[in-house]
Amino acid sequence: MIILCVTGSVAAGESVKLARELRRNDVEVKCFMSEAACDIIHPNSLEFATGSEVVTKLTGKIEHVKYAQEDLILVAPATANTISKFAYKIADNPISTLLITAQGHNTPILFVPSMHDSMYDAIKENIEKIKNEGSASFLNPKMDEGKAKFPSKEDIVLESLRTINLNKKD
Fold first, then answer.
1. Residue 129, domain CATH
2. In which domain, by residue range, is 65 found?
C-alpha cells in the first residue's frame, strides 16, 4: 500500500489523477491531506480516487502509527513547509507526524516537491539535509515558468514502484 500525502500546493489538484493512476497500476492507496490541501481540493475527491476514507486530522485511532509501516509514503505534492518540517522533525499535523513515525520504522519516503522556484531554492539546504540522513528520496520537479512543477503522473508512479521494489529487495 502507498500512503499518499497531499499538501497545500496548487498541484494538489493533480493528486486525484495521481491516485487514480496508482490504482490503475494495482496499488492500494490511502490518503492523508493537510489542512491547506483541503482548502484547495475537497477530501471527497481523494476518497473517490482512492476508495478509502481520507485522514485529515489526528484522532484516537492513531493513524500516524497505523499507516507508518506501509510500502511507501509518497508526499505529492510536497510543499516547502512540509519538507522543512520533516528536515527538523516537527510533528504538528497528521502528515508531519506520519512522516516522522515512518522514518522511525525505516519506511521508504518519496517527496515530490512542487512550489515556486524561489521557495525551492530557499529550502535546498533542507532537502540536502534529508538526503544526507538517508531518510527519504526526492523526485525532481519539472522546472518551468519560474516554478518547480509537479512532474508527470506516469513519472511519479514509475518512481514510486521503483522505490517499493528496491526496498523489497533490501
1. 3.40.50.1950
2. 2-169
pLDDT in tens, 80-132: 999 999 999 999 999 999 999 999 999 999 999 999 999 999 999 999 999 99
C-alpha cell at 84: 522543512
Domain count, the chain: 1
3-state SS string for the chain: CEEEEECCCHHHHHHHHHHHHHHHCCCCEEEEECHHHHHHCCHHHHHHHHCCCCECCCCCCCHHHHCCCCCEEEEEEECHHHHHHHHCCCCCCHHHHHHHHHHHCCCCEEEEECEEHHHHHHCHHHHHHHHHHCCCEECCCEEECCEEECCCHHHHHHHHHHHHHHHHHC
C-alpha distances (whole Å) from 35 to each of 56, 131, 139, 170 are: 7, 26, 23, 35
